[in-house]
Design brief:
By secondary structure, this protein is α+β, with helices and mostly antiparallel strands. The protein has 11 helices and 12 strands. Helix content is about 35%, strand content about 25%.
Length: about 325
Amino acid sequence: MNYIILDLEWNQSSTGKEEVSKILPFEIIEIGAIKLNSRREKTDEFSELIKPQVYHEMHRITGKLIHLQMDQLEQGGSFPKVVERFREWCGEDYIFCTWGPLDLMELQRNIRYYGLEPLADGPFKFLDVQKLFSIAYEDRKSRRTLEYAIDFLEIEKDIPFHRAFSDAYYTAKVLACMEEQVLSNYSFDVFHLPKDRQSEIHVIFNDYAKYISRGFTDKTQAIADKTVISTKCYLCHKGLRKKIRWFTPNGKHYYSVSYCDKHGFMKSKIRIRKSEEDTVYVVRTDKFITEEQVAEIRNKQEKSRQQRKEKRASKKH
């Protein structure tokens, strides 16, 4: 299997008033990529400019950041042709690697805009190297800039940043530094959601489990679904009794705590997200926690209850 380290540059509307800006907020103007083999050794590279078809004026911030002019882009190929060459260059057996999740989202938005064959018909695995850097070297939660990671790892800065090829080049350098076991922490691109219950994502990582649902009409339908709210031990698959029932402190995140006789307290967290298809979907994580962490969640629940009481009281007056 090859690793395709991808980076994109894109332009956007200078006014935001065009109707197309709602469908295609960012138009890709450059694709850069590095191909690594299974040993994470560089074997090839890809770099092409794309001639704009939607936004013909360079946004002032974009121009300053990437140092590209519109007359340079006029020499580029059309998006459909460049993407065709890029996909042929990728080959058959590969996994995308990006610094953060946004590049794959914008690539698929552009693919959809031009009516091209999608990258996949549902969620697919990729490596978010920004997240992997945090897992490997920091606290798993922080998200650093690419240049920070390069400085941290003392990697030589031998080409400028902020062009698609150079950022793919440096992302590949960071990826090559990581221990093999870190790469098991893959992510899922969900531009296209699971189509039905059978194709929903259930995956177990080293110390937690993740579930990604199909689309629902709205939040109410999502949190009423039995699969979404059921709490089973992801290690022994037994149904668990809740010690703290589902509650939400903000209407977006929901928490519960259950207890497994064999494995202890399990925290479940639901995040409600909007999809590209005007539906909502659920990302739920389950993780075993300590009694001290259970107490923290109970305090969060009590604080949420108190805030609701105060809100209701204020409405009466």
